[in-house]
Design brief:
Number of helices: 10
Largest sheet: 6 strands, antiparallel
CATH topology of the largest domain: Rossmann fold
CATH architecture of the largest domain: 3-Layer(aba) Sandwich
Shape: globular
Radius of gyration: 22 Å
Low-confidence stretches: 1-10, 15-20
Helix content: 25-40%
Order of helices and strands: EEEHHEEEEHEHHHEHHEEEEHEHEEE
CATH superfamily of the largest domain: P-loop containing nucleotide triphosphate hydrolases
Mean pLDDT: 87
Strand content: 15-25%
Length: 383
């Protein structure tokens, strides 16, 4: 039986035009964090395991890859912080792909932002996401289910935006309009101005919530031991089967009835307060009540389901980044995760302190990183 966010709502996979995404064959970093110049030749391997001590520059390699998707990367750092301290003040990340193309992101000292090139031709950063699909789990996500709802919401929205490229923009616009509405209330604005703001909020809220609900439903189709839920005012209305136009009217009415300030702050429910969670179907417990290792397994299963959904809907491959992949997991769990990923259309880049933690993983290369330098690349197939 198909599993969805709401059992009454069938899963529907919208047809996409054929898109062929790519994997990385060779990666080069220049003046990125503590890397003066580092190059990793992948040789079509599906698993690239980067090992080394803390501070060796392992995570910097994953961060560099994450920036090839066109956004600010897995750390969201300022560009000036990324540039190597004794370098030129800029940096570059260059990747050669399995279809013979090249992609690069670079930042020059004195610039206000990054720049991109595809096959050595200038390109918009937004175009990079059309070539590379990249998702990641960092140590920050180890506490995703027990920390703030804002973190879970941001994580979930980042994944959902893979299938709705306007989703992140709508979320940002919704937040901007909320700020304008609070300003209008504080300054006793004309009701017609508030009417216009509430119209915009209601339309954005329904679009945001509809994307979240659809993504959760489609994701659950690929989950077995876990299930994803979405909880929010407008999300609940959509899950109940209420027509989208009716949801927009109801939320618009709610906004008009709540034009008040409490302690100089606007108290308002909506997509900015929504949350998502996961349920362990075997233990019959919310994931947040399970052990740290079980929570990490839930995250891995979530990413695995996401990559399967991506390929089913779009035929695209995915690059998965696991920072400190071995943390909180025993050998059996690690073998299971990488074994499952091997059956998917993914390329995995993972970091860890000890190579022995990944010794049972095949189709892999092992990269030793030390103080921003690549000291050794061992191809498992060569023994």
């Amino acid at each position: 039986m198909q599993r969805t966010a709401n059992p009454c709502m069938p899963v529907r996979f919208r047809p996409w035009p054929p898109i062929f995404s790519i994997m990385i064959n060779c990666l080069t970093l220049n003046d990125f964090r503590n890397h003066k110049i580092s190059r990793i030749n992948v040789r079509d391997a599906k698993n690239i395991i980067i090992v080394g001590e803390n501070g060796a520059g392992k995570t910097a390699i994953l961060e560099a890859i994450s920036m090839l998707a066109g956004d600010r990367g897995m750390r969201g750092a300022d560009m000036g912080e990324i540039a190597r301290f004794d370098g030129s003040g800029g940096f570059s990340v260059y990747a050669e792909t399995d279809d013979g193309d090249s992609i690069s992101v670079y930042f020059n000292s004195g610039d206000n932002n990054r720049h991109a090139k595809i096959n050595d031709e200038s390109a918009n950063l937004s175009n990079l996401g059309k070539l590379l699909q990249i998702v990641w789990i960092s140590p920050k996500e180890d506490r995703l289910f027990v920390d703030s709802g804002a973190d879970r919401r941001a994580f979930f929205d980042r994944l959902a935006s893979t299938f709705d490229t306007n989703h992140n923009g709508r979320c940002a616009n919704f937040s901007k309009i909320l700020t304008s509405r609070a300003f209008a209330l504080k300054n006793g604005a004309d009701p017609k101005w508030l009417d216009a703001l509430d119209d915009q909020l209601a339309a954005a809220a329904v679009a945001i919530s509809a994307t979240r609900v659809q993504y959760a439903g489609e994701l659950n189709y690929f989950l077995d031991k876990f299930s994803v839920s979405v909880d929010g005012l407008t999300e609940k209305m959509i899950i109940s089967g209420m027509p989208v136009a009716a949801v927009e009217r109801e939320y618009r009415k709610y906004l008009e009835q709540n034009r008040i300030l409490v302690g100089d702050k606007m108290v308002l429910d909506g997509p900015h307060k929504a949350d998502f969670g996961m349920f362990n179907n075997e233990l019959k417990l919310p994931v947040k009540l399970t052990s740290t290792g079980q929570q990490k397994m839930a995250l891995f299963d979530l990413i695995l389901a996401h990559t399967n959904l991506l390929h089913t809907k779009t035929k695209r491959k995915c690059i998965v980044l696991f920072d400190e992949a071995a943390a909180h997991l025993d050998a059996g769990a690690r073998a299971k995760i990488f074994g499952s990923l091997k059956q998917t259309h993914t390329q995995v880049w993972a970091t860890g302190l000890d190579k022995n933690s990944f010794i049972d993983i095949d189709d892999a290369i092992f990269v030793t990183c030390n103080n921003g330098e690549i000291n050794n690349i061992l191809y498992a197939k060569e023994g």
